[in-house]
Write a structure and sequence with these properties.
The structure holds two protein chains of two kinds.
Chain A: E1 3-12, E2 15-25, E3 30-34, H1 41-48, E4 56-61, E5 64-66, H2 71-76, E6 79-82, H3 94-98, E7 105-106, E8 109-110, H4 112-126, H5 141-154, E9 159-163, H6 171-186, E10 190-194, H7 198-204, E11 207-212, E12 215-221, H8 227-235, E13 255-264, E14 268-276, E15 280-285, H9 291-298, E16 306-311, E17 314-316, H10 321-326, E18 329-332, H11 336-340, H12 347-351, E19 360-361, E20 364-365, H13 367-380, H14 397-410, E21 415-419, H15 427-442, E22 446-450, H16 454-460, E23 463-468, E24 471-477, H17 483-490, H18 497-501
Parallel strand pairs in A: 3-10, 3-11, 6-9, 9-10, 15-22, 15-23, 18-21, 21-22
Antiparallel strand pairs in A: 1-2, 1-4, 4-5, 7-8, 11-12, 13-14, 13-16, 16-17, 19-20, 23-24
Helix pairs in contact in A: 4-5, 8-17, 13-14
Chain B: H1 2-7, H2 9-24, H3 31-56, H4 64-78, H5 84-108, H6 113-132, E1 137-138, H7 143-150, E2 152-153, E3 156-157, H8 158-176, H9 178-188, H10 190-195, H11 200-226, E4 228-229, H12 238-248, H13 260-279, H14 284-313
Antiparallel strand pairs in B: 1-4, 2-3
Helix pairs in contact in B: 2-13, 3-8, 3-11, 3-12, 3-13, 4-5, 4-6, 4-11, 5-6, 5-11, 7-11, 8-9, 9-11, 12-13, 12-14, 13-14
Classes of the chains: A alpha/beta, B mainly alpha.
Chain lengths: 502, 317
């Protein structure tokens, strides 16, 4: 084995990201690491790349134990990583990017002649026709990815870790990339691939390992497993549909929000949806399926190319968040730290952010009334804090999310758009947020919720729509919820029951 | 006590500096001298106060010094033929207009504040020089105007009273009006503010307009004191002194953080150092060096905190 990792564990405060995971990869094979979001794939890859240190476990390269102090040491052992966010400096030329961080010197000065020659050789091998002097930023994403690969080849890489390499590529570009990856494998390079797209795993990989919630679930060679089995492994059999807690089925007699043909290319391609009063509507989809773009467009945060939105049966112009708020829509953004909260400001002032105007009296802001309102809102949502004047950044993730929801509540929201409201928060806070969602809907509000964890959607929603590449692929009512089918729909498969249930 | 120091470090630095200068120079504590310090600091104070708004809103305004110069020549020049009140209104209006132009360029075209205000700095200075033919304009102003600079009320110099008044209004505006609160919100997190329905462009334009207004008001005070208007040397380098005063007072150049009281103390500190160095007969070059050191120390004492904030902001989750 080229690389062998045993019993790798990584703990963060309150979270166990990896729990004793074993992993091995040999020269000349392609291994997929599979799992849902939050399963621990990225953490494992970062451990192998030397970007983070594991709390427990050993890593052996060529049979001898190593302990990486940082990515540079991992690279010196021939381990290179290509992250989903490419690390290309757009202003620099191709050759400068290829040798970024390990420039070649001769007699103390940079040896551009050798570097340009070597870069040209590698690029020809990769099939990139662009000149080594062109600016990296002017190349397409696929070409930039080739530069990343060239970067690792120029370091004599023996293990290439690729995190979601196909996420922003077209089909032809994916085919080219895979052809290249296969030829690298045949040259004896070990390759680890992280991907959400099941068909890609079956198309290119030799083996796979499955992670779930930081646990090692199992491994298999490709010819011994099929898609349905793999989905079962990823999600686990113990799907606990605790419906007892869920309230009665809603009356679907009043449409509060209706969207027709929403398009914002290339993310949204004609999405139709209807939301009923008192309903919880889930949106299932992979990253890049257009989930976030959909709710942001509904909220007026991004402009639409085409499409109409009706609120309470009336055609609505939602061209800015202000207008959307006035129509009773409220958005809890995907990234609460960079979009939902103002971390430098106190909890109280964050809570009243969109409803500030209602605390204005004749003599300016009524600060007492405002902090009373903030305290009430925080109490309704069980936000745990010691002082409303504390910066909101000091709160835990779950409590921060509750402040975001309190904000919407205070603004008189009737249609809640919740983008990944449970991401990065612990189980207890998750339950509190589910309770709140049911509370809100029983009072006549309506909710659209996005989650990468389909289990959660099944638990909290009345209806789920599946989104893939900006299109709705299927819709399920509560009585028809089926984890595997929703999962496959979200991955772009059009399946019916017979294919999966066996 | 420690809590007070932690919440208002600049107040304590100001007090310590006052004590040190008082011990070093016997004339420092004389009422006349203290009045002088207040008079001198309030000129820069107006500009620094405007800068404080812009910085809290996440921007930067380098055109302030040129606006002071334009305002001074406009008032002196127009008063040759018209009653001074007309010139004063034109100058204040011009300051607001320049601020609005800065704000509109920055928000609608998404140009960087530093570039936009460097260009307006040059353009406005050029206009002021062209208008005055690069010569001082004097002998045009009525005696009453000089009271604005030299008069006293209740023992305090008039410019200081006006400056404290401006500070009080600013405190009210920032803390007791929605628009004032929105300046902090926009500076703290522009995207979150936008998603909360705030008209980000309007808020930013308002901060630049306030800065332009206060700078041209500083020009008015300067005309009253110098009894003349001058375009070439007036207000040169004030933009950096204003930023320094605000930064010493704890205003963050990243936006979203800062107080009027801090800016007030920062401006007083800079004015006080100039005065004390004069009294002590120390070479003015030293003054620049010491201001630089004080600024570096002040910013370092805040940044331990802001570095932590930064880490939090970019923490991987």
């Amino acid at each position: 084995m080229f690389l062998e990792a045993r019993g790798i564990s990584k703990f963060y405060p309150g979270v166990k990201a990896l729990k004793g995971v074993d992993f091995a990869v040999d020269a000349g094979e392609i291994v997929a690491v599979v799992g849902e979001n939050g399963a621990g794939k990225s953490t494992l890859m970062k451990v192998l790349a030397g970007a983070i240190r594991p709390n427990e476990g050993t890593i052996k390269v060529d049979g001898s134990e190593v302990s990486f102090s940082g990515p540079i040491e991992a690279q010196s052992h021939g381990i290179c990583t290509i992250y989903q966010e490419l690390l290309i400096v757009p202003e620099l030329s191709v050759v400068e990017n290829v040798f970024l961080g390990h420039l070649k010197k001769k007699n103390g000065i940079l040896d551009w002649v050798t570097m340009r020659r070597e870069a040209a050789e590698i690029l020809t091998r990769l099939g990139l026709t662009a000149s080594v002097d062109s600016k990296a930023g002017q190349l397409s994403i696929a070409e930039q990815q080739l530069i990343e690969i060239a970067k690792s080849l120029s370091r004599k890489s023996r293990l290439l870790i690729m995190d979601e390499p196909t996420a922003s590529l077209s089909k032809d570009e994916v085919d080219n990339l895979f052809k290249l990856v296969r030829s690298l494998r045949d040259e004896g390079i070990a390759i680890v691939l992280i991907t959400h797209h099941l068909h890609e795993i079956f198309q290119i990989c030799d083996r796979l390992i499955v992670l779930r919630d930081g646990d090692y679930v199992g491994a298999s060679t490709i010819d011994q497993i099929d898609e349905a089995e793999l989905v079962n492994m990823m999600l686990g059999h113990a799907v606990n549909n605790d419906t007892a807690k869920h309230r009665a089925v809603v009356q679907r007699d009043e449409v509060v929000l209706e969207a027709r043909g929403l398009s914002r290319r290339p993310d949204l391609n004609g999405v139709d949806l209807a939301l009923h009063r008192g309903e919880v509507l889930g949106i299932a989809g992979l990253m890049g399926a257009g989930r976030t773009e959909l709710v942001r467009a509904l909220f007026g945060a991004d402009r639409l190319d085409e499409g109409t939105v009706k609120v309470n049966g009336k055609l609505a112009v939602l061209s800015s968040p202000r207008l959307a708020l006035e129509q009773g829509l409220g958005l809890a953004p995907e990234d609460r730290k960079s979009e939902g909260l103002i971390l430098s400001m106190p909890i109280g002032q964050n809570t009243t952010l969109p409803s500030l105007a209602s605390h204005c009296g004749f003599f300016g802001l009524d600060l007492q009334k405002e902090s009373q309102a903030a305290a009430d809102l925080c109490k309704r949502l069980f936000v745990k804090y010691s002082n409303l004047n504390q910066p909101v950044g000091n709160l835990s993730g779950g409590n921060q999310q509750k402040v975001v929801l309190a904000k919407l509540l205070g603004a008189g929201t009737e249609i809640y758009l919740l983008d990944e409201p449970t991401r990065g928060i612990d189980i207890g806070a998750k339950e509190a947020i589910f309770d709140l969602i049911w509370d809100l809907t029983s009072q006549g509000n309506s909710v659209i919720i996005i989650s990468s964890v389909i289990d959660e959607l099944i638990r909290v929603c009345d209806r789920i729509i599946c989104l893939h590449l900006g299109k709705v692929t299927n819709t399920y009512d509560r009585e028809d919820f089926d984890l595997n089918r929703i999962m496959l729909n979200a991955m772009g498969k059009n399946v019916d029951v017979s294919e999966v249930s066996q | 006590m420690m809590n007070l120091v932690r919440s208002y470090p600049y107040v304590w630095v100001l007090l310590v500096l006052t004590l040190v200068f008082g011990l070093m120079s016997p004339t420092f504590f004389e009422p006349g001298n203290l009045g002088n310090i207040l008079k001198q600091s309030s000129l820069l104070g107006f500009v620094a106060l405007g800068m404080c708004f812009v910085l809290i809103g996440g921007g930067l305004d380098l055109s302030v010094g040129s606006v002071v110069a334009l305002s001074s020549v406009l008032i002196a020049g127009l008063s040759a033929t018209l009653p001074p009140i007309v010139g004063i209104h034109v100058a204040l209006g011009a300051g607001i207009l320049i601020g609005i132009i800065n704000g509109v360029l920055i928000t609608t075209f998404r140009f960087q504040p530093i570039i936009v205000t460097i260009s307006t700095m040059a353009i406005v200075r050029g206009i002021a020089m062209a208008y005055s033919d690069s010569r001082p304009i004097f002998g045009t102003l009525p005696e009453e105007l000089f009271l604005l600079a030299d008069g006293t009320l209740l023992g305090l110099p008039v410019p200081a009273i006006l400056f404290f008044l401006a500070c009080a209004i600013s405190v009210f505006f920032l803390h007791y009006t929605a628009l004032g609160r929105q300046i902090y919100q926009v500076g703290g997190n522009e995207e979150a503010a936008r998603l909360a329905g705030i008209n980000v462009a309007r808020v930013k334009i308002v901060t630049y307009a306030i800065s332009g207004f206060l700078s041209s008001f500083a020009g008015l005070m300067l005309v009253a004191r110098m009894q003349s208007g001058e375009a070439v040397r007036t207000g040169v380098g004030w933009e950096l002194d204003a930023i320094a005063a605000a930064a010493i007072g704890g205003v963050s150049l990243m936006g979203g953080i800062g107080t009027v009281s801090g800016t007030l103390c920062g401006a007083l500190m800079i004015g006080m150092m100039a005065n004390a160095f004069n009294l002590l007969g120390i070479n003015p070059y030293w003054q620049r060096i010491v201001i630089g050191i004080v600024l570096a120390v002040a910013v370092a004492s805040y940044s331990s905190n802001s570095v932590r904030q930064l880490f939090k902001r970019f923490r991987f989750t």
